[in-house]
Amino acid sequence: MEKQTKNKNLKNRAAQFWKTGLLLLLTAIILTVPLPAQKRMIQIKGSDTLVNLVQVLAEEYMAKNPGAAIAVLGGGSGTGITALINGTCDLADHSREWKQKELDLAYEKGVKPRIFAIAIDALSIVVNEKNPIDILTMAQVGSIFRGEIKNWKVLGGADQKISLYGRQSNSGTYAFLQEHVLNNKNYSPEVKEMNGNAQIIEAVTQDLSGIGYVGVGYLYDENGNVRRGIKVLKIKKDENAPAFSPLDKEAVYSAKYAISRPLYQSTNGKPSGLAADFIRFELSPEGQAIVEKEGFFKIGQELMEQNLKNLK
Amino acid sequence: MSFKTKTRNLRVAQFFLCLLVFAWLMQLMATEAKAQQKISTTIYFDYTYYLSNQGPITNSQGDPNFKNNFFTFRRAYFRYDNKINDHLSFRLTFDGDYVKSVDAQGKKDDKFRPFLKHLYFQLTDIIPASELKAGMIDTITFKLAEDRWGYRSVAKELLDNFKDVTGKDIDAYSADAGISLTGKIIRQLRYGLMLANGAGYAHPEGDKYKKLMGQIQVIPLAGISIVGYTDYEKQGPGAKALTYKADFYLEAIKNLILGAEYFVYRNDLNITSTGQRFDRSGYSIFGRYVLLPDKLNAFARLDRYEPNSLSPQDETYLTIAGLDWALLTSNLKLQPNIWFYHYTDPNKKNDVVFNLTFFMSF
């Protein structure tokens, strides 16, 4: 009899606990989780080079489309692509193409990437404004970041050890420079790995012997002028070629500037709803005007046609 | 040349080969000494409440100190990753668990103690599209299934979980000292090979035999995987242990992952008093669904475990269901979950356990 009563008490207590706990949990979830019906929302993750530009595009889009919510996060191209594969973002920003390993993983997980070029970047090599060097060849840039040229004196500068500033390996800019300028060889272990483009600019501004690489959009201040404290180097394809600056629009559009690249967004499969609408806005004349205003370059006809095909 | 001289020469050659490999690794490390280093931590602990008190797990069995609800730190991983360059990286992981200890004076405790889980280097693309790991490494036994299940914080994968429940019924470890090679042959075909002690990370090698593991993953269509796995370890003269496992994963539907595993463990030392060999087997069907990306997921799983193929009414069915809720950030999650055990033995009543799992990573 006593045992039965005890069992009954235990059962009642368990039922009470369960009910209260469930109620508390549901209340908390409802209070903290934005329900999809309340807001149209997409999440964008990835390239640090793109984060400021996409943030501005998103703000402009949201101002025109009340009720739409777009969250933009950085973290690097690799982080964005991984998030898209894992289904934790709707759009991935990336400043390099997908690696074979990522494409294989996407296939394994049933993710079918659709890739859109939304802007063109001229990858810029920056030094401190007091550095006398104005021009480097692609080969020299490669040698510097591989750690083969260690002193500015070798290049006609002051007798100073070169301080290298770069990005972490999850950065698309890191991968792009490695592939196209360092000939797929390893970076020097002396490269100080910064979290983003802005930190590289800041470091080079402070360091007389510093050199770094950043997306062209990060060269300008809020007034559209090149930031004080840095010098943007002209780049020659080889020793005999003419030198061009990433600030020279004509040189970038005509592909005379040697290290330019498209900046991408990817979706899983054909984009729909808010994601598709936002991409259309980015590709529209209005969106492309924002791209230029932010220091980047508009995409050309060929890429635009490919984009429109991918939207269908 | 005498046999003795030949053997000596072979040993000298082996020594120099080892020396060469070591020197090459040292050179790689020396030239690229500075690298990307990362320290990370993952912790999960539970508040557990027994919703029934009748089954073998939740029954007090007359113990006056029996706890009906309690907090438990289940795991704490402290990880150091060092990416030397695009082809070479190192990982060191300390795991934490309640480990019993007795000192010289006979004083006992079971404090939460750290122990080594991983200590390995990884070479990428030593042959195209491959990863070679050597040291104390993840085994290939259930890595793919564990990744798909995705809730190690809530429950271990099928083999791993029932190995724990039953003590040492099944030889399956998440990490072991050895060497593994995984990679891709073509996009639709991946492989995994591993040679290890077979003793797991918790013990040093206990016998002279090594465990050989092999795995093939076929991906006929994007998002659909079929995996075949087998391992072999000699147990003694004329005795061997084999595990056969088949997995299926469906990831082609947006926000949904479904998986199924089936295994048979065959050990010649598992014999009844009449000398008949019995096998152990089990299956697991699991799924998780993203309700809101980065915010709220739901998951569920059904396991069946058969500890003795010759014994009737000894199977255990385990159903797990729960939610995964990112409180403010994805680094901090609450994962309320219920475990429902059903035993085919009519003398065993069901167990029902509620866990509020706290997941933290930083």
Detailed description of the structure:
The complex is a heterodimer of chains A (312) and B (362). Chain A is of the alpha/beta class and 312 residues long. Chain A folds into 2 domains: 40-120 and 262-311, Periplasmic binding protein-like II (D-Maltodextrin-Binding Protein, domain 2); 124-253, 3-Layer(aba) Sandwich (D-Maltodextrin-Binding Protein, domain 2), CATH 3.40.190. Chain A is built from 11 helices and 13 strands. In chain A, helix 9 packs across helix 10. Chain B has helices spanning 3-31, 143-149, 158-166; strands at 36-50, 69-83, 88-98, 101-102, 108-109, 112-124, 130-138, 175-186, 189-196, 211-221, 224-236, 239-250, 256-267, 280-292, 296-306, 316-326, 332-343, 351-361. The longest helix of chain B has 29 residues, at 3-31. Chain B starts with a helix and ends with a strand. The A-B interface holds A 7, 10, 14, 17-18, 21, 25, 29, 32-34, 36, 43, 87-90, 100-101, 104, 106-112, 168-169, 186, 189-190, 193, 268-269 and B 31-36, 49-54, 68, 83, 85-86, 129, 184, 187, 190, 219, 222-225, 251-255, 290, 292-296, 323, 325, 327-328, 330, 336, 354, 356.
| Biggest pleated sheet of chain A | 5 strands, mixed
CATH third-tier fold name of the largest domain in chain A? D-Maltodextrin-Binding Protein, domain 2
This entry's quaternary arrangement is: heterodimer
CATH superfamily membership of the largest domain in chain B: Porin
Task: Tell me the span between the first and last alpha carbons of chain A.
Answer: 73 Å
Query: What is the H/E string of chain A?
Result: HEHEHEHEEEHEHEHEEEEHEHHH
Q: How do the strands line up in the largest sheet of chain A? A: 2-1-3-13-4
In short:
Chain A is of the alpha/beta class and 312 residues long. Chain A is 42% helix and 21% strand. With 362 residues, chain B is mainly beta.
Write the layout of secondary structure elements.
The complex is a heterodimer of chains A (312) and B (362).
Chain A: H1 2-32, E1 40-46, H2 48-64, E2 68-75, H3 77-86, E3 91-94, H4 100-108, E4 113-122, E5 124-128, E6 135-137, H5 138-146, E7 163-167, H6 172-180, E8 192-194, H7 197-206, E9 210-214, E10 230-232, E11 234-236, E12 243-244, H8 249-253, E13 260-268, H9 273-283, H10 285-293, H11 301-311
Parallel strand pairs in A: 1-2, 1-3, 6-11, 7-8, 7-9
Antiparallel strand pairs in A: 3-13, 4-13, 5-9, 5-10, 11-12
Helix pairs in contact in A: 9-10
Chain B: H1 3-31, E1 36-50, E2 69-83, E3 88-98, E4 101-102, E5 108-109, E6 112-124, E7 130-138, H2 143-149, H3 158-166, E8 175-186, E9 189-196, E10 211-221, E11 224-236, E12 239-250, E13 256-267, E14 280-292, E15 296-306, E16 316-326, E17 332-343, E18 351-361
Antiparallel strand pairs in B: 1-2, 1-18, 2-3, 3-6, 4-5, 6-7, 7-8, 8-9, 9-10, 10-11, 11-12, 12-13, 13-14, 14-15, 15-16, 16-17, 17-18
